[in-house]
Amino acid sequence: MGKINKILLCGYCGVGKSAIIEQLLYGSHVLESPSHSTIEDIYTAVIETDRGVKEKVRIFDTGPAALQEGTEGDIPKHYLNFPDGYILVYDTTSWESFRRLEKLKKDIDKHRDKREVHMIVIGNKSELTERRQVQFDTAQAWAAKEKLRHWDVSVANRKSLVDPFVWLTSKITQPPSKTNFLPGRKTKSTSSNNLDTS
After folding, report:
1. Which domain holds residue 75?
2. What is the pLDDT of residues 41-85, one digit of tens each?
3. Total domains present in the chain
4. Which of 74, 166, 169, 191 has the fewest CB atoms below 10 angstroms from its CB?
5. Residue 133 lies in a domain
6. 193 part of a folded domain
7. Within 13 Å and on the Cβ side, how many CA atoms surround 4?
């Protein structure tokens, strides 16, 4: 474990960002408990990657006023410059929360300063099938168009929360390739006749 990588959870107000983190890290979220609007929370976690390496990550839980109901504001720029990875979260029972992802992604793409960042999409509250407004196939098609990985998760099923975080942590902590040299082609040497083989 060297560098501490940073992951930013962002999405519409009330999609369950805090519940996802608390259930993933502590298993302590109580379903149907009253929710309180988050201003900002920061969590530190050690996540085992798909390479079997434990990596320390800092997870930023946002709740900026710009993403609350009734506003069309941008996510504050200071949230867009530092993360190594982004998790865009929507509520499967809210079409509006899904619709807002497109603007969030555009804001992130616009302000990431040509850095390579990894981004995934999580549809929360997948257990509420009778109230579902965003079908999995619709979200999957949008994610594929945007070249993003997509998961449907449920805070009620803690195991469903693990895979997206492991995948993203594995991507943002992937070691650089071993060499910076591109393989070249062999050239014929005319000096081989000058070799003294005696």
Report:
1. 5-174
2. 888 999 999 999 999 999 998 765 445 444 445 566 777 778 899
3. 1
4. 191
5. yes
6. no
7. 9
Instruction: Compute CA distances 177 → 114, 128, 168, 182, whole Å.
Output: 20, 43, 18, 11
* 26 domain residue, yes or no: yes
Give the CATH number of the domain where residue 41 resides.
3.40.50.300
Tens digit of each residue's pLDDT (9 = 90 or more) over 86-111: 999 999 999 999 999 999 898 888 87
Q: Does residue 185 lie in a domain region?
A: no
Q: What is the 3-state secondary structure (H, E, C) of the chain?
A: CCCCEEEEEEECCCCCHHHHHHHHHHCCCCCCCCCCCCCEEEEEEEEECCCCCEEEEEEEEECCHHHCCCCCCCCCHHHCCCCCEEEEEEECCCHHHHHHHHHHHHHHHHHCCCCCCEEEEEEECCCCHHHCCCCHHHHHHHHHHCCCEEEECECCEHHHHHHHHHHHHHHHCCCCCCCCCCCCCCCCCHHHHHCCCC
Mean pLDDT of 109-129: 87
- CA 109 to CA 128: how far, in whole Å? 31
pTM: 0.80
